[in-house]
């Protein structure tokens, strides 16, 4: 098991199961104790991550707990007790199991040959193992309209449903979206939505996975394959930085399905729909499959030579600082390391930044004391959300936090810029406008935290219009009080990229440039002569003609960087080399495009918000001649006259383990030994340089509110214009349209109707959006969505200003 | 059809206030919606969802479990004929057949004038007075075919039927479908003891403390 | 000799205005409450325990003992009044609510006082519009008179009684389903264990669920004292019980009789009660405790109206509902009708009940319609066995050398509703199998079906 399991209680409970004496944990359910003892009790409604309900009656077994003697009891509801005797093979148990299956099959259609679940169906399996040879039911079965869509992603076939309450329990208990429900009564009970109100949950795909029959199917996988046609690899979802364990299932070299795997430390088997269905993008026709130079297809050799020439020319002209590398959060740890080594050692530039001006300073984030998800979710603990909305950005982290609050008595405190997906669960809410007052909010929050309880702060930057320095100062309020942190930076492997040194001033292993200078000079041969700059400064330098080549490593600054005009100016002057999987708007401006292999096409590791190293495995081959990012790095290095020194992802990992302070000791044997991933928490020492220390508080500048203006807050939604979403057939239609929201009192002042168009005007641009009143918006602020259809917010922003004030113009 | 009227919303809020948890008020509120419109409309369910702070799916989940809630309009008079065992033994099925012929509809349906709906229902707790029926939940005892015809005739003519009306009576009149009790509970503000909050209620004051 | 008639809970039924506060007060109403408030809650609880007041809802568990099952120190505790009377044949709680609501309210108050219950929810069956009206008016009057609410009669005892009503679902009469319904949910039973209401009930807090008739007895017990109360009825089942006798008797009705001393024969045949079988016909069978109970026959007539002997003889006294069938009754049809009820009322939560009860109905309908197959009879019993495994409770039947199997049955289901559908099946087939066979045989020889024939034993 994982590092999060409590030490086992000293006392165990002696139970006899089918004649064998076993020791069970106090409070353990009979069905679980039996499973550990190697006795599988059939079940439908029982799911280890949800409250047992004892409804399906499939797990009835003979239990003798003393007193009234052996009785048929649901093993999913009965905890073990000392001296209990369990018989799962008694004549009475067999008859009950046979009877329950016969009852279930009365109304279950025998359409297994055309059912997606066929071959992986618990009802099928249990019927073969425990069920009747034939049914005595000769009448007409229950009929419903064959599958009805209950959301954009999920179909429901009520004829197949055995009413186990798994999907409905998941929706209410786990996701907190009770939009599907039992309706009707008795033999006419069905699961359904309210008329015209679909099951639009971010987590709906889990219901398809846990359905024990083929009643719920996903629009994505319907009729695509049979279980026996699938090959699968265990991997990790990189749709965001939570690090959910998955198995990737493919058939004929196409990735068909991502299924959640129960990682006790991370995702408990759940996935968000963006992660689950986002894998479709891998198969997209729009994938980059051939290199190009100047917009024309090119051979790899020519494209690499051109890229090397551009870099060499830039270095010749202005030194290594003439080259900048933006991005890298899409990469595996191994590829991130290879690119860090290429940039910082071979080229010699420290102008490297995996974040796009929408995150938090790397040294700051890496220096904060880190919590695990399990620590954050500890019973009766305290969770502070600081500037983040996990429901929209880190879906499964939201599920874990929600469980901690709803089921384990954790206290949630929200400090941010208005209502988010967890506001209703928060015991205290401290909302403020951007520009400095968040620090006061943090101090107020600190004052109400329950004394003596461990505090975990989930720290993010949902709104790019808040100054990162303000968030840092607010975070230090909690850090100085002993809190631990979960950084809610959401890009897939952003934490791995920072750990590998894809940030200005950092080297692999969470080591600052100067601290690691001598160690890495001997390990690598050379390191940059001085600290580089972040994305904003790189773009500015490019726009000023001081930086000639920008390498985009899976980055799309035109859509993501919070100052579109600056990106445009930078691209107008600098040459762009794009290493990417899709031709996004930024890639379209590139001189050289190098197609990269995507998630599911590469082996390696990824790192989640906890610093947990999790495995990635290749299930399918990349399209065309696309190749892993680390190979692209080694080949570029070769053309620049250097040898990075590795020929496989495994070799790279060995080097990471050998040089990265934070990863010391995590050799491949250690990684392979755990199923749940391993936290990288090395501190350096010995020959290795020390990792970055706890940051110190420094006051951020206060930007007072201007009476005449409204301060802009940018919100993120689960579904936006991100590449993975836009290129996944299932998800592409889900992002909503943008709008502008105001506090109802501010809205009244506009004298308009809800939904009327207004123009949001800043000093740098304007966009027109429908306006709505929303009590979840802080007075004096307006909120708009980042990166969705309708209007792109980064037209309004300037990277030179920490906050953005706007005024609304009503067209009459 | 519609959300609750302001008057009914006020009643709804009073009902909700009597429970430690808002959702407990859901069944009484569904009755209130049915009393207003004669049935429970989707819009009413949405409104109730807002009032008790659950989703509409949870409201319909509860609503659809209980057979008294009609999600489509029924007749002004809902005639429930019990055919359960005690009534069956004394001719309830014959009475039901008579009713179906007399009104020209099968059980479960509504006459074309929208006046009557007949239902074949389970025990309505008047077993010693079998066969029995209710009209909008007002009892009629020991009903035969002739009695049924007379009741229907009275209702058609706008008269309150008295033949075989239960001794303790429908209090003189039969309101349209949806109205149950003719009086509501009202707790005067100065008499309210208060809800017992499941999360924080203390030990009752009148118990001796150990 | 038949025990004399005693009216403890129906004493006011003789008055046309029995439901008013004025009549109640004029005839001793709320004297039990007044007396209780002069006693300590413990003393009141002890008095109820000493009276051995057995629950009148069906299970027959002593109310005073039940109150003691709440875990110490866990607050609040609730009282939920089960007025969801819907068991086929049962008709007494509706009368008690319509005709003497103040007696019930007084009982609720005494229970809350004695057991430390902080809020009371009075759940009336949805279909009972008159009972709802009468109880609402009675509550409003009682509040105004200072009997209910803040500082009852000037004491430090404060409790609200909230009138709540259902909407048509038999299963809500089951106590955990009643609690679910009261929480605004679908009335689906919870699993016991762990959800015994006394420990984990309404809103997860200790909750006492008492039947209307049980509570209606409390005022009288406190006024008279447990010693006097125990002079009526038998030692193990003191007091009286209300029985609704319906079906083929000369004078069907609701009778209050002394508990445990009166016999079925006396109730069915004595002239002061039902006066015998109608039209001089013979008794064929009778349901002794509501539709859920296995059937009794001539042989069981001399059993006393008391839970334990009735259980030992293979059935239950249940909720005081006796349905009498004379020899003109078609056993298959009667069996089908009772089974149909449970099939229609199954909540659908657990598989054996949801699927099994409607399957039983389907098979029985097929037999009744003349499409039965010889294997159907044993299949009915086997399907029943998958709902309620093992020998099903049944009356002894000496003619065939069959011994009684005591009640209650075993079950694969969550609650007893599923097994209730097995009761008529086992009862009717065991005793009247030739009637089933005859309906099936007729099909085999091509004679038109739907004959009303009974085969006498």
What is the secondary structure topology, with strand pairs?
The complex is a heterotrimer of chains A (about 800), B (about 210) and C (about 450).
Chain A: E1 13-17, E2 20-24, H1 30-36, E3 60-64, E4 71-74, E5 84-87, H2 91-106, H3 122-130, E6 148-149, E7 154-156, H4 166-174, E8 180-183, E9 190-193, H5 205-210, E10 216-218, E11 231-236, E12 245-251, E13 254-260, H6 273-278, E14 292-293, E15 296-297, H7 300-318, E16 323-327, H8 333-347, E17 352-353, H9 362-367, H10 373-376, E18 382-386, H11 390-393, H12 395-408, E19 411-416, E20 428-431, H13 437-448, E21 455-459, H14 468-479, E22 484-487, H15 494-499, E23 506-507, E24 511-512, H16 513-524, H17 535-543, E25 549-553, H18 557-560, H19 564-573, E26 575-580, E27 592-595, E28 604-607, E29 612-616, H20 629-639, H21 649-659, H22 668-673, E30 678-679, E31 710-715, H23 723-726, E32 740-742, H24 744-750, E33 757-761, E34 766-773, E35 781-785, E36 805-810
Parallel strand pairs in A: 1-5, 16-17, 16-25, 18-19, 18-21, 19-20, 21-22, 25-26, 26-27, 31-35, 32-34
Antiparallel strand pairs in A: 1-2, 3-4, 3-5, 6-7, 7-10, 8-9, 11-12, 12-13, 14-15, 14-27, 23-24, 28-29, 29-30, 31-36, 32-35, 33-34, 33-36
Chain B: H1 6-17, H2 26-37, H3 42-52, H4 56-63, E1 77-82, H5 85-89, H6 92-103, E2 116-121, E3 133-135, E4 138-140, H7 145-156
Parallel strand pairs in B: 1-2
Antiparallel strand pairs in B: 1-3, 3-4
Helix pairs in contact in B: 1-2, 2-3, 3-4
Chain C: H1 21-26, H2 31-38, H3 41-50, H4 63-67, E1 78-83, H5 93-99, H6 101-115, E2 119-124, H7 129-144, E3 160-165, H8 175-182, E4 207-211, H9 212-216, H10 218-224, H11 226-229, E5 240-247, E6 253-258, H12 264-269, E7 283-287, H13 307-312, E8 321-326, H14 331-345, H15 351-368, H16 376-387, H17 417-444
Parallel strand pairs in C: 1-2, 1-4, 2-3, 5-8
Antiparallel strand pairs in C: 5-6, 7-8
Helix pairs in contact in C: 2-6, 2-10, 3-6, 5-6, 5-7, 14-15, 14-17, 15-16, 15-17, 16-17
């Amino acid at each position: 098991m994982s590092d999060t399991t409590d030490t086992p209680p000293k006392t165990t409970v002696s139970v006899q199961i089918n004649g064998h004496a076993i020791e069970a944990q106090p409070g353990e359910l009979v069905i679980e104790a039996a499973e550990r003892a190697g006795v599988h009790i059939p079940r439908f409604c029982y799911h280890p991550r949800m409250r047992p309900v004892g409804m399906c009656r499939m797990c009835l077994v003979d239990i003798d707990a003393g007193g009234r003697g052996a009785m048929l009891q649901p093993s999913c509801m009965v905890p073990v007790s000392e001296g209990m005797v369990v018989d799962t093979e008694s004549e009475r148990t067999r008859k009950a199991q046979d009877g329950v299956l016969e009852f279930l099959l009365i109304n279950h259609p025998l359409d297994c040959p055309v059912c997606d679940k066929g071959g992986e169906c618990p009802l099928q399996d249990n019927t073969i193992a425990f069920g009747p040879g034939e049914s005595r039911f000769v009448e007409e079965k229950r009929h419903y309209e064959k599958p009805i869509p209950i959301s954009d992603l999920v179909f429901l076939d009520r004829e197949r449903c055995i009413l186990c309450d798994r999907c409905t329990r998941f929706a209410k208990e786990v996701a907190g979206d009770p939009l599907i429900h039992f309706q009707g009564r008795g033999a006419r009970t069905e699961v359904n939505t309210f008329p015209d109100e679909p099951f639009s949950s971010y987590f709906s795909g889990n219901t398809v996975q846990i359905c024990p029959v083929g009643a719920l199917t996903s629009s994505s996988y319907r009729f695509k394959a049979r279980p026996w046609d699938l090959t699968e690899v265990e991997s990790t979802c990189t749709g965001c930085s939570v690090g959910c364990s998955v198995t990737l299932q493919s058939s004929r070299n196409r990735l068909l399905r991502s299924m959640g795997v129960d990682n006790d430390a991370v995702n408990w088997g759940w996935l968000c729909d963006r992660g689950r269905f986002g894998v479709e993008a891998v198969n997209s026709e729009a994938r980059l499959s051939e290199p190009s130079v100047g917009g024309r297809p090119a051979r790899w050799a020519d494209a690499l030579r051109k890229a090397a020439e551009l870099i060499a020319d830039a270095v010749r002209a202005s030194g290594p600082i003439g080259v900048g590398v933006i991005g890298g959060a899409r990469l595996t740890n191994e590829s991130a390391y290879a690119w860090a080594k290429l940039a910082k050692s071979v080229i010699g530039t420290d102008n490297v930044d995996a974040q796009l001006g929408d995150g938090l300073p790397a040294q700051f984030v890496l220096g904060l004391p880190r919590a695990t998800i399990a620590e954050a979710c500890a019973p009766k603990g305290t969770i502070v959300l600081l500037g983040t909305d996990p429901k929209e950005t880190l879906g499964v982290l939201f599920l874990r936090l929600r469980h901690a609050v709803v089921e384990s008595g954790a206290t949630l405190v929200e400090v941010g810029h208005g209502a988010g997906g967890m506001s209703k669960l928060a015991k205290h809410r401290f909302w403020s406008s951007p520009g400095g007052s968040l620090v006061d909010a943090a101090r107020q929050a600190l004052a109400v935290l329950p004394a003596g309880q461990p505090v975990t702060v989930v720290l993010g930057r949902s709104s790019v219009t808040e100054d990162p320095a303000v968030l840092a100062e607010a975070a230090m309020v909690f850090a100085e009080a002993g809190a631990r942190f979960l950084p809610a930076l959401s890009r897939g492997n952003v934490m791995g990229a920072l750990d590998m040194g894809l940030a200005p001033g950092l080297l692999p292993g969470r080591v600052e440039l100067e601290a690691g200078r001598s160690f890495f000079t001997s390990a690598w041969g050379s390191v940059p002569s001085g600290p580089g700059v972040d994305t904003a400064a790189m773009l500015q330098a490019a726009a000023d003609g001081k930086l000639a080549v920008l390498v985009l490593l899976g980055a799309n600054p035109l859509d993501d960087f919070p100052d579109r005009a600056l990106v445009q100016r930078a691209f107008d002057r600098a040459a762009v080399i794009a290493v990417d999987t899709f031709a996004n708007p930024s890639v379209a401006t590139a001189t050289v495009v190098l197609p990269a292999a995507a998630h599911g096409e590469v082996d390696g590791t990824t790192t989640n918000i906890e610093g947990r190293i999790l495995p990635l495995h290749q299930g399918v081959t990349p399209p065309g001649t696309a190749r892993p990012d680390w190979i692209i790095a080694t080949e570029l290095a070769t053309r620049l006259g250097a040898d990075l020194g590795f020929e496989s992802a495994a070799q790279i990992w060995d080097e990471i383990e050998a040089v990265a302070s934070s990863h010391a000791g995590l050799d491949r044997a250690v990684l392979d030994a755990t199923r749940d991933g391993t936290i990288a928490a090395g501190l350096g020492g010995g020959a290795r340089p020390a990792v970055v220390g706890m940051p110190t508080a420094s006051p951020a500048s206060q930007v007072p509110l201007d009476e005449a203006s409204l301060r802009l807050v940018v919100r993120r939604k689960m579904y936006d214009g991100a590449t993975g979403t836009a290129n996944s057939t299932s998800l592409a239609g889900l992002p909503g349209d943008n709008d502008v929201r105001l506090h109802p009192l501010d809205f009244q002042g506009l004298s308009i109707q809800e939904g009327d168009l207004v123009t949001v005007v800043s000093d740098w641009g304007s966009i027109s959006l429908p306006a709505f009143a929303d009590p979840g918006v802080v007075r004096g602020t307006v909120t708009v969505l980042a990166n969705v259809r309708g209007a792109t917010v980064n037209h309004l922003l300037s990277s030179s200003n920490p906050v953005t004030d706007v005024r609304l113009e009503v067209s009459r | 059809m519609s959300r609750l009227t302001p008057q009914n919303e006020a009643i709804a809020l009073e009902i909700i206030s009597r429970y430690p948890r808002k959702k407990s008020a859901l069944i009484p509120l569904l009755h209130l919606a049915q009393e207003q419109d004669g049935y429970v409309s989707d819009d009413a369910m949405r409104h109730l969802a807002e009032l008790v702070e659950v989703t509409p799916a949870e409201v319909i989940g509860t609503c659809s479990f209980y057979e008294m809630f009609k999600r489509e309009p029924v007749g002004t008079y809902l005639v429930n004929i019990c055919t359960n065992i005690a009534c069956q033994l004394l001719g309830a099925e014959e009475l039901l057949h008579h009713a179906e012929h007399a009104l020209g509809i099968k059980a479960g349906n509504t006459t074309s004038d929208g006046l009557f709906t007949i239902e074949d229902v389970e025990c309505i707790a008047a077993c010693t007075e079998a066969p029995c029926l209710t009209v909008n939940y007002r009892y009629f005892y020991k009903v035969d075919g002739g009695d049924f015809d007379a009741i229907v005739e009275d209702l058609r003519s706008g008269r309150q039927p008295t033949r075989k009306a239960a001794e303790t009576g429908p209090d003189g009149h039969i309101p349209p479908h949806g109205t149950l009790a003719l009086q509501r509970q009202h707790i005067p503000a100065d008499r309210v003891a208060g809800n017992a909050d499941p999360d924080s209620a203390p030990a009752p004051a009148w118990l001796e403390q150990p | 000799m038949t025990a004399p008639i005693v009216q403890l809970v129906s004493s006011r039924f003789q008055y046309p205005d029995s439901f008013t506060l004025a009549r109640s007060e004029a005839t001793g109403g709320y004297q039990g409450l007044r007396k209780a408030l002069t006693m300590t809650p413990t003393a009141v609880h002890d008095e109820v325990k000493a009276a051995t007041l057995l629950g009148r809802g069906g299970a027959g568990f002593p109310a005073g003992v039940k109150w003691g099952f709440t875990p110490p120190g866990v607050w609040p505790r609730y009282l939920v009044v089960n007025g969801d009377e819907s068991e086929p044949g049962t008709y007494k709680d509706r009368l008690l609510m319509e005709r003497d609501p103040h007696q019930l309210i007084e009982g609720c108050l005494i229970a809350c006082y004695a057991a430390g219950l902080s809020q009371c929810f009075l759940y009336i069956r949805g279909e009972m519009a008159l009972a709802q009206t009468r109880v609402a008016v009675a509550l409003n009057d009682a509040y105004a008179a200072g009997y209910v609410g803040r500082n009852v009669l000037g004491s430090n005892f404060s409790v609200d009684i909230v009138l709540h009503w259902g909407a048509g679902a038999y299963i809500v009469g089951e106590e955990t389903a009643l609690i679910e319904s009261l929480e605004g949910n679908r009335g689906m039973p919870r699993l016991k264990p762990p959800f015994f209401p006394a420990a984990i009930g309404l809103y997860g807090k200790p909750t006492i669920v008492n039947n209307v008739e049980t509570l209606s007895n409390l005022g009288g017990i406190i006024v008279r004292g447990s010693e006097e109360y125990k002079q009526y009825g038998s030692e193990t089942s003191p007091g009286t019980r209300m029985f609704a006798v319906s079906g083929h008797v000369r004078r069907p009705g609701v009778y209050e009789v002394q508990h445990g001393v009166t016999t079925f024969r006396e109730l069915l045949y004595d002239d002061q009660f039902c006066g015998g079988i109608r039209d001089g016909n013979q008794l064929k069978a009778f349901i002794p405790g509501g539709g859920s109970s296995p059937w009794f026959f001539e042989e069981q007539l001399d059993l006393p109206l008391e839970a334990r002997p009735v259980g030992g003889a293979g059935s239950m006294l249940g909720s005081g509902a006796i349905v009498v069938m004379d020899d003109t009754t078609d056993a298959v049809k009667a069996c089908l009708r009772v089974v149909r009820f449970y099939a229609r009322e199954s909540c659908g939560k657990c598989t054996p009940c949801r699927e099994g009860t409607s399957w039983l109905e389907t098979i029985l309908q097929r037999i009744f319609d003349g499409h039965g197959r010889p294997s159907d009879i044993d299949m009915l019993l086997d399907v029943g066995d998958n709902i309620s495994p093992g020998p099903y409770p049944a009356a002894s039947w000496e003619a065939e050398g069959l011994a009684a199997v005591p009640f209650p049955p075993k079950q694969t289901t969550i609650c007893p509703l599923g097994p209730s559908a097995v009761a008529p099946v086992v009862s009717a087939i065991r005793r009247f199998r030739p009637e089933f066979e005859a309906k099936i045989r007729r099909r085999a020889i091509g004679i038109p079906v739907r004959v009303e024939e009974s085969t006498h034993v």
